[in-house]
Specification:
Rossmann fold; 5-stranded parallel sheet; 2 domains; 8-stranded mixed sheet
């Protein structure tokens, strides 16, 4: 039987497993109190951010220690319906208990100085506890994280019984447990030191990781003539300089494209800064009278902004363009408006000579069933500058199950190889 010295030891062991799963610079949300101490070590080892997701048990009538469910500070609840019926917990009782425990969860999050409205959209989030018993609080926490828009919700714990670990697979996108033991009877049996954690220790852990680093995010304005383009810049904490990827969205989209945000967040996990901006007439950017014809100028302005940003490695800037955004990127490069180190273009409409004469190598990702595939493959065959990557079963929007995740993986892997200091290019 695995026995940890304490929660910090368990966190370091779990961090090693998470690294083997390819998880770096994650957003870690610990379930207080013990989960935050485990999460602190994970965030430190993997260079991630640390926060809390407070989940409160819902007690049974006349048996408050018996959990019939759990609820988080945003009101997301999980209820064991069968157990609730056995304990005579009717809907009126559940409504009162959920309301009371939601208020207490909110109070506790405020006491920890947590950001209740943390933006989880498109991110891979680790929900961490010091162990699973019934899994009630973990279920509510995972549901809350998903409801907040996380792209992936991963449950990471040092120890769990087999049946609870299996049950959690229906709630989490992935369950990573360092120890799964059929002789489980209590979390404390797997620790030499399992003393209670205080609120002050939780606050100290959160402060420690805030000092170590994380991700720094800011809304910026990119000046282009008389127009200010709205943009969001994010980078790992510290002086850098860091590689950077500029995102160019497609028509009818904006800088918060649900297909681009998950890619951007994964790049940040890999230590690559990101700049997402609104083309003119989209999102928060004002419209240029030239409309579509001015999109390459918009991208050129975004590229020029990266050159003046001291935290960016100006020799390691890439461009990610989706659909028309990919076409815009090609036009801007051909016009000499920018010269990124590499580009990844997802399903761009192209002319036969679109890739000829490019001064860099580009990856073009296209769905197997996309009507644009034939044009893309024909254009790419005329030059060595373009590598085509076909995603099986995918259409133009990569809507097939798993297709967008596959496109994400191929995109981030390419940029890591071409832009990261430890890449293979």
């Amino acid at each position: 039987m695995t026995v940890y010295r304490d929660r910090a030891d368990a966190g370091r062991v779990l961090a090693g497993m998470l690294r083997q799963h390819g998880i770096e610079r994650p957003l870690v949300l610990g379930i207080p109190r013990g989960g935050v101490i485990v999460g602190e070590e994970i965030a430190r080892e993997l260079g991630g951010e640390l926060g809390v997701v407070v989940a409160r048990k819902l007690g049974a009538p006349a048996q408050p220690e018996l959990a019939i469910g759990a609820v988080t500070a945003d009101g997301t609840a999980w209820v064991d319906e069968g157990l609730a019926r056995l304990c005579d917990a009717d809907q009126a009782y559940l409504d009162r208990e959920i309301a009371e425990q939601t208020r207490e969860a909110q109070r506790r999050e405020e006491a920890f100085g947590a950001e209740r409205n943390r933006d989880l959209r498109g991110r891979t989030v680790l929900v961490v506890d010091d162990g699973l018993a019934t899994g009630a609080t973990a279920r509510a926490a995972l549901r809350s994280v998903k409801q907040a828009g996380a792209a992936r919700a991963v449950l990471a714990v040092p120890v769990a019984p087999p049946h609870t670990a299996r049950e959690m697979e229906s709630e989490a996108d992935e369950v990573i447990a360092a120890t799964i033991d059929s002789d489980f009877y209590a979390i404390g049996q797997f620790y030499v030191d399992f003393r209670p954690v205080t609120d002050d220790e939780v606050r100290a852990a959160l402060g420690n990781i805030a000092e170590v680093g994380g991700i720094e995010r800011s809304d910026v304005r990119i000046r282009r003539g008389e127009i200010d383009l709205a943009a969001r810049f994010a980078r790992p904490a510290g002086d850098g300089p860091y590689p950077c990827v500029i995102f160019v969205h497609g028509l009818g989209s904006d800088k918060d494209s649900p297909r681009n945000v998950p890619i951007a967040e994964r790049l940040l996990d890999l230590g690559i800064a990101t700049l997402r901006f609104d083309l003119n007439g989209h999102g928060e950017s004002p419209e240029d009278a030239r409309g579509r014809a001015a999109y390459p100028i918009d991208l050129a302005a975004a590229y020029a902004w990266t050159v003046t940003e001291p935290s960016i490695d100006h020799h390691a800037v890439g461009v990610s363009g989706s659909s028309i955004g990919g076409t815009v990127a090609l036009e801007a490069v051909h016009d000499g408006k920018l010269k990124p180190r590499t580009m990844v273009l997802r399903a761009p409409p192209v002319e036969p000579d679109a890739f000829e004469g490019l001064p860099m190598t580009v990856l073009v990702i296209v769905g197997e069933l996309d009507p644009l595939r034939t044009d893309i493959e024909y254009a790419a065959a005329r030059t060595d500058a373009a590598a085509v990557s076909v995603v099986p079963g995918a259409g133009h929007l990569f809507e097939a199950p798993g297709a967008l995740d596959e496109a994400l993986s191929r995109t981030t892997r390419w940029f890591q190889e071409w832009l990261s200091p430890d890449g293979n290019r």
